[in-house]
């Protein structure tokens, strides 16, 4: 496997410009001769599909949801970063770049991150032009808020529904292209297989989730914008349907998978309430702007009501330990500290796995109305789920799996190790290193979809001039057959255990051994437990119904089967990365105060896993990460 | 202390869009339900028990389970998304119910929303309305600096109020005429209120209203059930706005 990052020549601020000038173009009359497959319709996929269609390409876009408007980008609450410096508070492209590389704990590719910071400004312009109702000041200009890991105010937002509004913007653009006939939309279609021919991506196989029909789709190039793999943990803030299947199928067809162990645990989620729990709900990080996080100083106070605990008996531990950033430390730091407090026995709530997020000060300072205006919908959501009113009693929060920084390896052009397969958004690995800063996921998804892929894909098509195969070709027929065989096998096992019971068990293994803190013996244990569970799954899973019609159990079974393989790669990656960095915390590598300790001389690289066939261990490759601009330092938010 | 309950569920079961469908009653599978469960988690538990007995689970749509994606869609005791105001079915929690309660759970019922299986319906008709004109025709790359368009906070807030629609279709399910006017009018209000949307107001309004009619949705006769059912609190005043806009646009067209 060759990992050529194809980083353009020149100084960092000129790289993207130089690259664009060097790219081959496809003339407007020829664009209509190319068919592009886009899998996923979230911010990255939706923006890419719409923009490529605007340019004149023929696009087929696929999503598992019943409408492209429902992709999980919609759930992002807090905002989107952009280096606009509208506040005049010292922001710049360079500062956003710097914050992102540092926030990612020096495990991202500088050139990609710089480009991301550059195009961030265009995203706000584009979204505004498309009618995204960003929050405004009374004077009519755009408003900003602050987010974790930054000391400037650069986050644009639309109440607590920024992801929704940005996705509806992309969806509007996509709808316009569907109307014009340039995009053919396939909803309730799930990608089950990637099809390659002579090392090139030539199409996909999907299952129509209503009719059960297995269908092949051929194109000149395949774009995957299929999101992250957080649901490997069963419980996460992801939507129920989010899965790794598309990315994992691409991996099995030769696409390298980078840094699968990098998962982001979000510090502010509603704690688990019981074993029936189906998902975890995030409370936006923006709440940390005004909310203060604390636990009781004394264990004995943990079972008291919060209002019975005197001010001097409260430990505002983030403010105490990190006076410079206080409650706005990056996510990994906030999450780990919450875990530390609970492990010390100072956690609150019925399970003891919770910390308080308190708005009493903010309500006193700003008044209830302003707090309501800023966070009203989040407070309502919290109250609906827990029955507690955050205006009168502090919220209880605990970290939960939220985002995955790892993903399919891509070069500067977003192309994977398979020619013609491009990967966008959360599904790729490049921009966030080992930890993503808040409000940067929306930025990256839209950057990839609106402003990067339209150029880099043109270069691929213009210089490689790939052929489109017929779906009658043997590679498609073989892929269809393997999908059908697998479905047949899943429905015919007829064992005793439900799909969900396996998924929950896998999730517990992952959370216990590959969650917020990891160590060698735990990871080794997980590497024994997962294959055993997988074996049991293929012997004893019960999937009612057949593959010939709508069958939700079957959909889940296919996804869980892939999680059961993928979880093993995550653990393997976590075991080999013998250092702590960002969201990957190895207990063997920490300072006396419990901060993460990187081992730069051994691990300043992306670890890229190559599939080596059924039953064989995958091979680990490395792409070195070099830092010419942001010098290594231990991240300090004190 | 956490409370549990035993329920009786009458759930609409329908094999596919051709099947006529009927209610099926469940009691054994609905015992010991915790008050802390969400409504959909309660259905998850019932489904696990059905599968263990070798029966087919109840098919229902859900995805984000935090009230924003608009996927979940079921009528609970006659009310789309159930009894809580401004709340989707996925956010409804079982502390609403007590031991012995009898519940009827049905899919959205509307001619334009064919049932796919059990509680799942096809809502592509809503997408077709947006595709007809629910956008601002601007290509990527041609946008001016975002602050060059100044928009008063009140206008921006009003657009956001309408833009909050999650496209779930509860308004259609609640309406005796199966009208999609609240949905269509919300999208129109969002786009037509903003200065960026002004150049296409007439074209957009006519196209979306015509697409709505073409998709077979009924008309508005002021029952306001849509507003009551809307999980995002979209106000029915947008419908009046749309009707005025449509009348004006139609006159201009002539």
Secondary-structure blueprint:
The complex is a heterodimer of chains A (638) and B (254).
Chain A: H1 15-22, H2 28-31, E1 35-39, H3 43-55, E2 58-62, E3 80-81, H4 93-103, H5 110-129, E4 155-156, H6 162-179, E5 183-186, E6 189-197, E7 200-208, E8 214-218, E9 221-224, H7 245-252, E10 257-258, E11 263-269, E12 292-296, E13 314-315, H8 317-321, H9 331-343, E14 355-358, H10 360-366, H11 368-386, E15 395-404, E16 407-408, E17 421-423, H12 441-464, H13 474-493, E18 497-498, H14 499-514, H15 520-540, E19 541-542, H16 552-576, H17 600-603, E20 605-610, E21 619-624
Helix pairs in contact in A: 3-6, 3-12, 4-5, 5-12, 10-11, 14-15, 14-16, 15-16
Chain B: E1 4-5, E2 8-13, E3 22-26, E4 33-34, H1 39-52, E5 75-76, E6 79-80, E7 102-106, E8 115-117, E9 120-121, H2 124-133, H3 153-163, H4 170-174, H5 181-193, H6 201-214, H7 225-229, H8 237-253
Parallel strand pairs in B: 2-7
Antiparallel strand pairs in B: 1-4, 2-3, 5-6, 5-7, 8-9
Helix pairs in contact in B: 2-6, 3-5, 5-6, 5-8, 6-8
Produce a short descriptive summary.
Chain A is an alpha/beta fold. Chain A has helices spanning 15-22, 28-31, 43-55, 93-103, 110-129, 162-179, 245-252, 317-321, 331-343, 360-366, 368-386, 441-464, 474-493, 499-514, 520-540, 552-576, 600-603; strands at residues 35-39, 58-62, 80-81, 155-156, 183-186, 189-197, 200-208, 214-218, 221-224, 257-258, 263-269, 292-296, 314-315, 355-358, 395-404, 407-408, 421-423, 497-498, 541-542, 605-610, 619-624. In chain B, the strands form three sheets. In chain B, strands 3-2-7-5-6 form a five-stranded mixed sheet. A two-stranded antiparallel sheet of chain B has the order 1-4. In chain B, strands 8-9 form a two-stranded antiparallel ribbon.
Overall radius of gyration of chain B = 21 Å
In CATH terms, what is the architecture of the domain at 266-400 in chain A?
Answer: Alpha-Beta Complex
CATH class of the largest domain in chain B: Mainly Alpha
Number of helices of chain B: 8
Q: Overall mean pLDDT score of chain B?
A: 97
Portion of residues in beta strands of chain B equals 5-15%
Oligomerization: heterodimer
The strands making up the biggest β-sheet of chain B line up spatially as: 3-2-7-5-6
H and E order of chain B: EEEEHEEEEEHHHHHHH
Distance between the termini of chain B: 68 Å
């Amino acid at each position: 496997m060759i990992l050529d990052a194809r980083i353009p020549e020149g100084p960092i601020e000129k790289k993207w410009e130089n690259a664009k000038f060097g790219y081959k173009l496809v003339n407007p009359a020829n664009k209509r001769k190319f068919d592009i497959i886009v899998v996923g319709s979230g911010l990255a996929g939706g923006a890419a599909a719409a923009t490529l269609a605007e340019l004149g390409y023929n696009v087929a876009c696929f999503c598992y949801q019943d409408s492209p408007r429902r992709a999980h980008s919609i759930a992002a609450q807090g905002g989107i970063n952009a280096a606009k410096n509208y506040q005049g508070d010292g922001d710049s492209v360079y500062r956003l770049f710097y914050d992102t590389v540092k926030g990612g704990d020096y495990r991202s590719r500088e050139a990609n991150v710089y480009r991301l910071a550059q195009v961030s400004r265009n995203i706000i312009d584009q979204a505004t032009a498309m009618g995204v109702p960003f929050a405004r000041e009374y004077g009519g200009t755009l408003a900003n808020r602050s987010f974790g890991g930054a000391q400037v105010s650069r986050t644009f937002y639309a109440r607590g529904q920024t992801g929704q509004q940005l996705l509806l913007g992309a969806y509007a653009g996509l709808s316009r292209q569907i109307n014009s006939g340039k995009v053919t939309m396939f909803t309730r279609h799930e990608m089950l297989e990637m099809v390659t021919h002579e090392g090139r991506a030539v199409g996909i196989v999907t299952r129509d989730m209503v009719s059960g029909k297995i269908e092949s789709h051929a194109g000149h190039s395949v774009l995957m914008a299929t999101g992250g793999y957080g649901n490997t943990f069963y419980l996460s803030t992801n939507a129920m349907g989010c899965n790794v299947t598309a990315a994992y199928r691409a991996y099995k067809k030769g696409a390298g998978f980078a840094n699968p162990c990098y998962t982001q645990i979000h510090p502010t989620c509603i704690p688990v309430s019981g074993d029936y729990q189906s998902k975890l709900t995030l409370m936006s990080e923006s709440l940390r702007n005004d909310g203060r996080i604390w636990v009781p100083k004394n264990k004995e106070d943990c079972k008291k009501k919060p209002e019975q605990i005197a001010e001097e008996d409260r430990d505002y531990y983030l403010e105490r330990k990190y006076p410079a950033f206080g409650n706005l430390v990056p996510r990994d730091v906030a999450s780990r500290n919450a875990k530390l407090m609970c492990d010390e026995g100072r956690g609150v709530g019925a399970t003891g796995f919770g910390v308080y997020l308190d708005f009493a000060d903010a309500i006193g300072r700003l008044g209830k109305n302003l707090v309501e205006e800023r966070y009203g919908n989040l407070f309502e959501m919290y109250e609906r789920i827990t029955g507690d009113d955050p205006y009168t009693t502090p919220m209880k929060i605990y970290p939960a799996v939220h985002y995955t920084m790892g993903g399919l390896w891509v070069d500067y052009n977003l192309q994977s190790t398979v020619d013609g397969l491009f990967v966008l958004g959360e599904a790729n690995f490049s921009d966030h290193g080992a930890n993503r800063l808040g409000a940067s996921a929306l930025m990256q998804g839209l950057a990839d979809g609106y402003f990067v892929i339209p150029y880099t894909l043109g270069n691929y098509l213009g210089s490689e001039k790939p052929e489109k195969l017929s779906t009658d070709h043997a590679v498609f027929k073989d892929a269809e057959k393997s999908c059908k065989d697998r479905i047949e096998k899943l429905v015919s096992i007829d064992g005793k255990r439900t799909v969900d019971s396996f998924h929950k068990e896998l999730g517990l293994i992952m959370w216990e051994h590959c969650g917020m803190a990891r160590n060698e013996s735990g990871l080794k244990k997980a590497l024994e437990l997962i294959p055993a569970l997988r074996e049991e799954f293929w012997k004893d899973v019960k999937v009612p119904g057949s593959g010939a019609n709508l069958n939700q159990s079957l959909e889940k079974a296919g996804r869980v089967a892939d999680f059961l393989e993928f979880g093993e790669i995550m653990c393997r990656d976590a075991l080999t990365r013998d250092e702590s960095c960002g969201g990957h915390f190895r207990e063997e590598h920490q300072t006396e105060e419990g901060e993460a300790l990187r081992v730069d001389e051994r691990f300043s690289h992306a670890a890229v896993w190559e599939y080596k066939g059924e039953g064989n261990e995958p091979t680990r490759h490395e792409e070195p990460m070099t830092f010419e601009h942001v010098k290594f330092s231990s991240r300090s938010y004190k | 202390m956490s409370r549990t309950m035993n329920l009786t569920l009458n759930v609409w079961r329908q094999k596919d869009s051709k099947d006529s469908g009927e209610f099926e009653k469940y009691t054994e599978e609905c015992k010991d339900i915790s008050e802390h469960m969400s409504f959909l988690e309660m259905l998850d538990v019932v489904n696990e028990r059905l599968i263990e007995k070798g029966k087919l689970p109840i098919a229902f749509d859900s995805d984000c389970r935090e009230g924003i994606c608009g996927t979940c869609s079921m009528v609970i005791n006659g009310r789309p998304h159930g009894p809580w105001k401004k709340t989707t079915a996925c956010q409804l929690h079982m502390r609403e119910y007590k031991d012995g309660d009898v519940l009827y759970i049905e899919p959205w019922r509307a001619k334009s929303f064919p049932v796919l299986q059990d509680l799942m319906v096809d809502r592509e008709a809503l997408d077709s309305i947006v595709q007809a004109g629910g956008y601002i025709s601007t290509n990527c790359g041609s946008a001016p600096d975002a602050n060059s368009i100044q928009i008063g906070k009140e206008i921006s807030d009003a657009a956001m109020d309408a833009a909050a629609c999650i496209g779930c279709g509860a308004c259609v399910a609640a309406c005796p005429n199966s009208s999609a006017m609240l949905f269509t009018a919300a999208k129109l209000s969002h786009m037509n209120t903003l200065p960026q949307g002004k150049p296409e107001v007439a074209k957009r309004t006519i196209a979306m209203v015509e697409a709505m009619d073409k998709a077979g949705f009924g008309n508005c006769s002021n029952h306001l059930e849509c507003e009551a059912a809307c999980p995002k609190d979209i106000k029915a005043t947008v419908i009046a706005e749309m009707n005025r806009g449509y009348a004006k646009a139609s006159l201009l067209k002539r």
